[in-house]
Amino acid sequence: MKIKTLASALGLATVISFGASAAVQQVNTDQAQNMQPMGSISVSSVTGSPMDIRHELAQKAEKAGASSYRVTEMTQGDHWHATAELYK
């Protein structure tokens, strides 16, 4: 009985976390050709890994009302800097 409850809870948690992270998705150049651009965003002074900067971009894109974003520039010096194009 406990195994069924645990499996159900894990399944629900997976669906919830996927739904939260799927709100804004990163696309490539080919995918972006069929989308409507709506501006650009940038983030800087981010420490950590490339995944951290992608997370920052996704949060900013979501706040701007975008459904997708495409990274157009990503550089690393002392900190990460990235620019992305937003799409509806």
Report on this structure.
- 43% of the residues lie in helices and 33% in strands.
- It has 88 residues and is an alpha+beta fold.
- It has helices spanning 2-21, 29-32, 50-63; strands at 25-26, 37-46, 68-76, 80-87.
- Strand 3 (68-76) and strand 4 (80-87) form a beta hairpin.
- The chain has one domain: Flavin-binding protein dodecin (Dodecin subunit-like, 2-Layer Sandwich), CATH 3.30.1660.10.
- Count of DSSP strands: 4
Spatial strand sequence of the major β-sheet:
1-3-4-2
CATH architecture type: 2-Layer Sandwich
Q: In terms of per-residue confidence, which ranges show pLDDT below 50 for 5 or more consecutive residues?
A: 1-21
Could you estimate the helical fraction of the residues in percent? 40-55%
Any idea of the CATH topology? Dodecin subunit-like
Largest sheet: 4 strands, mixed
Distance between the termini: 45 Å
Shape designation = globular
Alpha plus pi helix count: 3
Oligomer: single chain
Mean pLDDT score: 81
User: Which CATH class applies here?
Assistant: Alpha Beta
The number of distinct structural domains comes to 1
Pfam family, one: YdgH_BhsA-like
Organism: Pseudenterobacter timonensis
Protein name: Peroxide/acid stress response protein YhcN
Keywords: Signal
